[in-house]
Amino acid sequence: MATPWNLRVKETVDFFKHAVDGPPQVVVILSGGLQTLTEALDNKQVFHNQDIPNFPKPTAEGHRGDVVFGTCAGQRVAVLMGRSHYYEGYSMLDITMPLHALHVFGAKTLLISNAAGGINPSYTPGDLMVIRDHINFMGDNPLRGIANQSKQQFVDMTNAYTPSLRQAALSLAPQVGVTLHEGVYLATSGPSYETPAEIRAFRNFGADAVGMSTIPEVIVANFHRMQVMGISCIANLAADLHSGGMNHAEVLRAVKGAEPHLVTLFLRIIERLGGNGVHVNAA
Length: 283
Ligand code: HPA
Known about the structure:
Blueprint: H1 5-19, E1 26-29, H2 36-39, E2 42-48, E3 66-72, E4 75-81, H3 92-105, E5 109-118, E6 128-137, H4 163-176, E7 180-188, H5 196-205, E8 209-211, H6 215-223, E9 227-237, H7 248-272
Parallel strand pairs: 1-4, 1-5, 5-9, 6-7, 7-8
Antiparallel strand pairs: 2-3, 3-4, 5-8, 6-9
Helix pairs in contact: 1-3, 3-6, 4-7
The protein binds hypoxanthine (HPA).
């Protein structure tokens, strides 16, 4: 029989306790290809996913599988470079194992980014969008079979993205010099991009951007009552606005172009967190 999930989490946490200088307060999960945030960290320790028990091994093009621990603005930070995706064939539990473990190890806040197609016609590739809310269209849930073994069988998602962190991002955006929208992110399982008809339906649902990630981690973060901020990098126009021939190279190029803004925004947010890694300014 497969090892129960909580024992797998414990095994990973035990590994971290022995190998890492101290528990992180903040977890940052980056869109594929982004590396410069880790350059801002001091006292770095780098681990490859394949050396960490129960961490999935990324297979997607442009996604490296490393975890970098370090310090930044007085916070201990763990950066997951090269998250794993549901579309790679992993289970929802596999892809959220790192977050379960990093939370149990100590992290209270999740900062997460993704690449997305712009459904809202006012969005332009290269813009950023702070996620106000999401629509889980992935057809699965990472807490299935897990939450019922815990004290919290049903998880509140009414403020899945911490309002004060969203506000902080919106007020910092002009200083960072970036167009920051606020909107609803919808995720499909992927790996196919959407058809124009699907995008029209998603627009009617109220979605502003579409991608293939992030929602599993945000559900798990809410299960653990972590604070959450999510940023989508609008990499391309969604399928019904696109001229045709959507491809991953276009996405990677746009994400790379938006990287300096995204990284600066994340670093400014980290600077605003309190000593325990939690954002307290609810105003
Ligand atoms: N659809 C889904 N996922 C994406 C897209 C898109 O248009 N762009 C980047 N990731």
